[in-house]
Amino acid sequence: MAMIAPSRRLRRTPFSAGVEAAGVKGYTVYNRMLLPTTFRSMVEDYHHLKEAVQIWDVSCERQIELRGPDAGRLMQMLTPRDLRGMLAGQCYYVPIVDETGGMLNDPVAVKLSEDRWWISIADSDLLYWVKGIAYGYRLDVLVDEPDVSPLAIQGPRADDLMSEVFGDSVRDIRFFRFGHFDFNGRDLVIARSGYSKQGGFEIYVDGSDIAMPLWNALMEAGQKYDIHAGGPNLIERIEGGLLSYGNDMTMDNTPHECGLGRFCNTHTAIGCIGRDALLRVAKEGPVKQIRAIQIHGDAVPACDRLWPVMAGSKRVGSVSSAAWSPDYKTNVAIGMVRLTHWDEGTDVQVETPTGRQFATVHESFWI
Amino acid sequence: MAMIAPSRRLRRTPFSAGVEAAGVKGYTVYNRMLLPTTFRSMVEDYHHLKEAVQIWDVSCERQIELRGPDAGRLMQMLTPRDLRGMLAGQCYYVPIVDETGGMLNDPVAVKLSEDRWWISIADSDLLYWVKGIAYGYRLDVLVDEPDVSPLAIQGPRADDLMSEVFGDSVRDIRFFRFGHFDFNGRDLVIARSGYSKQGGFEIYVDGSDIAMPLWNALMEAGQKYDIHAGGPNLIERIEGGLLSYGNDMTMDNTPHECGLGRFCNTHTAIGCIGRDALLRVAKEGPVKQIRAIQIHGDAVPACDRLWPVMAGSKRVGSVSSAAWSPDYKTNVAIGMVRLTHWDEGTDVQVETPTGRQFATVHESFWI
User: pLDDT of A268-308, one tens digit each?
Assistant: First the structure.
């Protein structure tokens, strides 16, 4: 690991003061913004996430706001997922593809009302695509990045902590639904969602000025639940099969290759970009697909590039994320595997920078 | 400075093996790719850049390729700079704006032929904007990111080194022009350009497979010129007034605010996006503008956020990049200053994280 050179271009967040006070040790850069990844150590943070509750500065999940009479039409153009049944108050995971069906982002769409949406994005400047489409189609909609910074509360004690700060009704939010809650006289959207399998919430902090007051209130109320600052944990997200745009999928991949075919209602999502290409893919099926891959033997190094998945001398796939799992006592990994080798239990080998290791392809993830 | 967490999402480059062998100490992330910033130290690298010759892995200057009958039309839609007089073999610095005149990127356009262009981008996913516009306007053009990774040779000995590897005719390339040169039987575009004021070239390395052979050939031939690996140097680029997208300008700024009004031919660049807004700006003039700012007193810390520029209790601007200059023995900075205080020699104060320091606004940069 090397040092990261500071600059304004790698944007700080409204919670950076809290993150620094909590002793952040490592960052990644996500949407040109600092995303804290490590506080005590990746393994300590991992165990703690599964046992207690963590506060995550995920401001880097930037929002794209669509506002105006054509907001709903634009949102449906952007994704092959059929949005007709979606109600205000719901969050949908929506693959976004280009005209050839290549993944541009895999955000969560938040429907605030019929003519107002937020798109909570993964790591690519989706704003540029959305603005380009809105301009090219002369849609009557405003598209911009509002001053909204998500803060995640994740872990088994998340409900307990959140109810201390926002009241018991926060417990009633259903998965991928959101409600409006008051903090210091400000209305905040809170969703039951987040980038872990340990349960929790994402608070859409609308206005940088209340970011640190909210951080401090949660930290104080969380003392009795052993709260610590944390971040998306590489080990836990691989165990849970949570994909990462840019790591496990890129513009080269269709949603079907990413195992997201169930979110592509290409027959009914009328007007969506990429429909023709995805209809073809849906008909023929993908030739490679995301799989859980168990890598046997010693702990693997950090996966900072694709590792070939081999069947003897033939390449049959790539590993894109990998880590040693203390709980499962094996290396857990995410990769794409060709259809000849993607069945449950198929034996393969993975070429890591430290050598070739035996591995087994699985159809489901660990958590 | 914190550590950077490795992942595939922060892309390695075809030159990473060479960069690591050269002892890289710090990176930034640029276009979701690793950009080496420091080898020996920022100051050592700075002095060496001005005295000898450096090899820079600037793969992160990704290319967008436009190919097809509408390539030229699309290129002109993208920028308010009039491209009618531009010949194949020329490079143009082209501001790219949205419909409101907000800067989306400030790339260099490389005209390979009438129907084939590269856009060598700064730090934003301009590809998404270009693809969105091409799709929205149903243009007959292919838009993608080719496997082209620029390698820069910068410094006073750049011509000597390059002629050893590519022959003496490389010396004849004029500023912002390019030629085709052979390396190991491969045709490479080489331009006289680069992100320093020390002179040099950018080689558009077309095909990752020849990246390390070329790196090694240049390193070997460069021994007698004291070649070292380097990267865009913060101190030198501020002295030279080289702006950085994301640092010194963002989508909030017009080209006129960035001092790029001379690249906006809004009366003649027919069909360009943002024309209406920029005509208005050109007529009234901007109310704030990029300036060189000399910050007196002690060396300032790293500028990782906007620093207020004050006139007494009134905010009159922001500093976006700053560093101590060993050669000029003062802090050099780039910022935006309101028209009331942007005249040469105006005294202001800058609020750095370590306190308020006196400063002077200048109309021209140091180099």
Answer: 998 999 999 999 999 999 999 999 999 999 999 999 999 99
Where does B63-125 sit in CATH, by number?
3.30.70.1400
Nearest residue to B171 (alpha-carbon basis) of B157, B158, B159: B159
Give the strand pairing for A54-57 and A148-154: antiparallel
Give the strands of the sheet with A142-144, arranged side by side: A91-93, A108-113, A116-120, A63-67, A142-144
User: Shortest CB distance from A104 goes to which of B1, B24, B128?
Assistant: B128
CB nearest B4 (choices: A4, A104, A132): A4
Contact yes or no for B132 and A137 at CB 8 A = no
For chain A, the domains span 16-62+147-238, 63-144, 287-367
Rounded CA gap, B98 and B11, in Å? Answer: 27
Tens-place pLDDT, residues B1-30: 679 999 999 999 999 999 999 999 999 999
Rounded Cα distance, B124 and B199, in Å: 26
User: Which fold, A63-144?
Assistant: Alpha-Beta Plaits (3.30.70)
DSSP result, A55-67: EEE-TTS-EEEEE
Of B125, B129, B136, the CB nearest to A137: B136
Within 8 A of A124 by CB-CB distance, chain B residues are: 32, 125, 128
Dihedral sign for Cα atoms in the order A272, A277, A282, A286:
negative
Q: Which of A292, A315, A297 is nearest to A354 (CA)?
A: A297
Which pLDDT band, with edges at 50, 70 and 90, does A22 fall under? very high
Extract the tokens encoding A304.
């900072």
In terms of phi and psi (left: phi > 0; alpha: psi -120 to 50; beta: otherwise), the region of B194 is left
**Cross-chain Cβ contact B321/A246 below 8 Å:** no
The residues near A38 (Cβ < 8 Å, ≥ 6 apart) are A24, A25, A26, A45, A231, B3, B5
Chain A residues whose CB is inside 8 A of the B133 CB are 132, 135-136
- Low-confidence residues of chain B, pLDDT below 70? 1
Count CA within 13 A, CB hemisphere, residue A144: 12
Residues paired with residue B153 on neighbouring β-strands, in sequence order: B55, B201
Which tokens belong to A36?
Answer: 């804290």
Residue B208 contacts A, CB cutoff 8 Å = no
Tell me the H-state helices in chain A.
Answer: 16-21, 42-51, 71-78, 126-136, 158-166, 211-221, 234-239, 275-284
Instruction: Report the pLDDT value the prediction gives residue A2, as an integer from 0 to 100.
Output: 79
Q: Does domain B16-62+147-238 fall into CATH 3.30.1360.120? A: yes
ipTM over 0.85: yes
pTM score, whole prediction: 0.97
Closest Cα to residue B79, out of B69, B64, B68? B64
Q: What is the pLDDT of residue B260?
A: 96
* Tens-digit pLDDT profile for residues B66-108: 999 999 999 999 999 999 999 999 999 999 999 999 999 999 9
Third-level CATH fold of A287-367: Elongation Factor Tu (Ef-tu); domain 3 (2.40.30)
**Sequence-separated (6 or more) residues with CB below 8 Å from residue A224:** none
Chain A positions in Cβ-Cβ contact with residue B124 (cut-off 8 Å)? 32, 125, 128
Q: Do B124 and A125 touch (CB under 8 A)?
A: yes
Region A15-24 average pLDDT: 97
Mean pLDDT of A106-132: 98
pLDDT value at A1 more than 80? no
List, for residues B237-266, the tens digit of each pLDDT value: 999 999 999 999 999 999 999 999 999 999
Report the pLDDT averaged over residues A149-162: 98
